[in-house]
Amino acid sequence: MTIKLYNTLTRTKEEFKPLEENQVKMYVCGPTVYNYIHVGNARPAIVFDTVRRYFEYKGYNVEYVLNFTDVDDKLIKAANELNEEVPVIADRFIKAYKEDVAKLNVKEAVHHPRVTETMDDIISFIEQLIEKGFAYEADGDVYFRTRSFDEYGKLSHQSIDELRSGARIQVGEKKDDPLDFTLWKEAKSGEISWDSPWGKGRPGWHIECSAMARKYLGETIDIHAGGQDLAFPHHENEIAQSECHNDTTFANYWMHNGYIQINNEKMSKSLGNFILVHELVEKHDPNVVRFFMLSVHYRNPINFSDELLMEAKNSFDRLKTAYLNLQHRKTASLNLTQDNAEWEEKINNLKQRFIQEMDDDFNTANAISVLFELAKEANIYAQQDQTSTTIIDRFTDLFDEITTVLGFSLHDTELLDHDIEALIEERIQARKDRNFARADEIRDQLKEKGIILEDTPQGTRWKRA
């Protein structure tokens, strides 16, 4: 069965047909690196990592590109507030991003282009748009002529007239038309900048991805992906400038993940309800966080709360218990020669169901349901008087096969000594801060891992149970 995916451009599920046999050219919009990432950033990282993993599972070679926006207004503002240089802040939070997503078992991209390292390509891209008449310079700024692209609005399914009614020219802008968007910004005094044919400045947001995608993947790519919030205007503008520049289709398939809500409210910094990933994975098993993110179809919105995460942990633990019970049962199993055809067929059918669900627009929610069915059958088998090591291995192999694609692990991992010491230090600080809830939480967390704490006048001691 071939993979079908929902294409935002056509609003239909389409059979995936790569530009080159067994190759996938995939570009995912990455973060603006001015701060730590939040759970809203984590969702596309997990979702499209899983898409990549599944393509690889089906035998494709995936050239996966995820960019870093390492210069923009937010970075400049952060640099001014912290009295640091923009590149210093960018380096810090690129490192933090990689550490955070690695804990969520997100694979490293094949290419991680940065805007500041692609500046010559961006400037050349803009020059060619001007030469072709699709862009114009105005007192150090450069704008794209939106009306010059007849298909503008085809991704967001809006007409140019609908867009025109809400467009405004902001103070300081020198656009010919309110719909025109910025390709190059003239530098303000003291701002980080680059030399260009139009004077010192820096690129607009949209042009960056077009230039980076072209540089690393070519003029036409298979899949362009990102959060739903990027569809308009970011991806719409990418299409316009790329197709005018390249004279060909920019991306054949567009994928967008749904929004995240926090406690049934839209996540926003103004509401103070955003959750940073590096704090989240200190409190919760990253495997459970990833499991939770994939328990809802990627195009649907997902509600995030401590209660729902705890429910996910309980569900995850059921899968883990079934898996670990199999491993324990194997020690008492025999290399039986009896006919295992019935169990072989059940396992094979579950594998085919997993593939069927993932082939249908990467339906991880249904794929996880298959995992629970696998756990149910595994539990039934493990309770038999006699079990075969062959069938035990077939069960565990399929568990490993599916969870490797989904990117989480059911293996029982033992805490290392330095991890235990770090948690004890955090507990000591929490008690000093009178945050007794967090202190108790850490004690319980360690207890679950078989680590017993003893508080003495000389300090906290620990031992493995």
From TrEMBL:
It is an enzyme of class 6 (ligase). Residues 353-416 form the Cysteinyl-tRNA synthetase class Ia DALR domain. It comes from Piscibacillus halophilus. ATP binds at K269. Residues 333-360 form a coiled coil. This is Cysteine--tRNA ligase. Monomer. Its main location: cytoplasm. It is found in: Cytoplasm. CDD domains: CysRS_core (cd00672). A motif ('KMSKS' region) lies at residues 266-270. The keyword Nucleotide-binding applies. Zn(2+) binds at C29, C209, H234, E238. The modification Phosphoserine is found at S270.
